[in-house]
Design goal:
379 residues; alpha/beta; six-stranded mixed β-sheet; five-stranded mixed β-sheet; 14 helices
């Protein structure tokens, strides 16, 4: 499996339109809508179906309703190349719930996207048609570069003013996106907003100093697909070591991999269920609390301590550990292998934890395109 990357070196990407035609039509009618405008973002991934409904508020947004459910859409995809019938039915059932929520709140501005599982499955188009037929929802399969871009802009509020070199990591179910950004030419107080401006595209140039995307990569290995690669290895520790090695092998062509950068001014932001689960385990949260997790900074030693604890627990111990949860226990070690690899090979001993990602990026992109977010510092 060859990682997907730009055809040209560095960040010479073709400009990506911020929104599809349907959403641009929403923008033209936004001024005609009475009452507060609500926006929705739905992410149907390899493992989960998630949706947020939100209202713009200042330079941020307020979540009105949300949905998250493990549907395992990509179960068996690695072996068959197709989405299974049971997997598609689980996804459709989850999407029916989402559609009822959209109707209940009268949402008119929305993007409903599918990612790696649908990108890879031979029968993805048949599934998309089934979804429209049974739920009325129009799912859009987005490309890896847009998935990476949306993950980046979702993390803009967490970018430190001291950050000159930024690596954003989004560990998904079927793929992992990494984006390296140079902020050294941007004034410190403008760095978070320069990240937000990337909603126009990785090569977009705004007024004044801009964030520069040095390189990016989408590795077709996420928590589900990496786990499937080594499902036949019985020994828990050996399987973890193999997953870590295999993921690192797939990063060899990412240009910053062999670059020398000082730790000072370098920041890694990790966004994924893996990262937030590790953070919750470190904090000892038996009940997840987003307010305690989002924005937490963890050291490499703290992350390693949690991962060693996971290995000591073994498969059965992880299954019953309330900090991990029953929806994630079978996937946490493949995600931990990716996370530990990234912390080992890049020049930093700290990770900023982001409980945000594609859905938040979809919301920010829509709201930015519609001009409903106020200028000002991020909260």
């Amino acid at each position: 499996m060859t990682p997907v990357r730009p055809q040209e070196a560095g960040a010479n990407l073709a400009a990506i339109e911020a929104l599809p035609a349907a959403s641009r039509a929403d923008a033209s009618s936004a001024s005609q809508t009475s009452g507060p405008a609500l926006y929705a973002a739905l992410d149907l991934g390899t493992n989960s179906c998630r949706m947020l409904i939100a209202e713009p508020k200042g330079s941020q947004f307020t979540v009105i309703d949300s949905f998250s459910k493990s549907v395992q859409l990509g179960l068996g995809l690695e072996a068959s190349g197709r989405l299974g019938r049971a997997s598609m039915e689980r996804a459709v059932q989850a999407l029916r719930i989402c559609q009822r929520k959209l109707e209940k709140h009268g949402v008119t501005h929305k993007r409903l996207v599918a990612t790696e599982a649908c990108r890879r499955a031979r029968n993805a188009r048949d599934f998309i048609r089934q979804v429209r037929r049974e739920t009325g929802m129009g799912l859009e399969i987005i490309e890896p570069e847009e998935e990476a871009r949306l993950a980046v802009i979702s993390c803009a509020p967490l970018v430190s003013p001291r950050t000159e070199q930024l690596l954003v990591v989004d560990i998904g179910g079927g793929s992992t996106e990494l984006v390296w950004i140079d902020l050294s030419a941007v004034p410190a107080e403008e760095r978070p907003r320069s990240i937000m401006n990337l909603h126009l595209g990785f090569d977009a140039q705004g007024d004044g100093p801009a964030a520069r995307v040095v390189d990016w990569i989408s590795v077709p290995l996420g928590v589900a697909t990496l786990k499937d690669q080594f499902g036949d290895v019985q020994d828990d520790a050996a399987r973890f070591a193999l997953m870590s090695w295999f993921f690192e092998e797939n990063l060899a062509n990412f240009s910053p991999y062999n670059a020398e950068h000082p730790k000072e001014g370098f920041q890694i932001i990790g966004t994924s269920g893996t990262v937030t689960t590790v953070a919750a385990s470190f904090l000892g949260l038996r009940r997840y609390d987003r307010n305690k997790v989002d924005g937490l900074v963890m050291t490499s030693n703290q992350i390693d301590f949690v991962i060693r604890d996971y290995l000591a627990l073994g498969p059965e111990g992880r299954r019953t550990d309330p900090r991990i949860g029953r929806d994630r226990h079978s996937l946490i070690m493949s995600g931990a292998a990716i996370l530990q690899t990234l912390m080992r090979i890049w020049p930093t001993d700290r990770l900023s934890v982001a409980d945000r990602g594609l859905r938040e990026g979809l919301l920010y992109a829509q709201m930015s395109a519609h001009g409903v977010l106020e200028d000002g510092p991020f909260a």
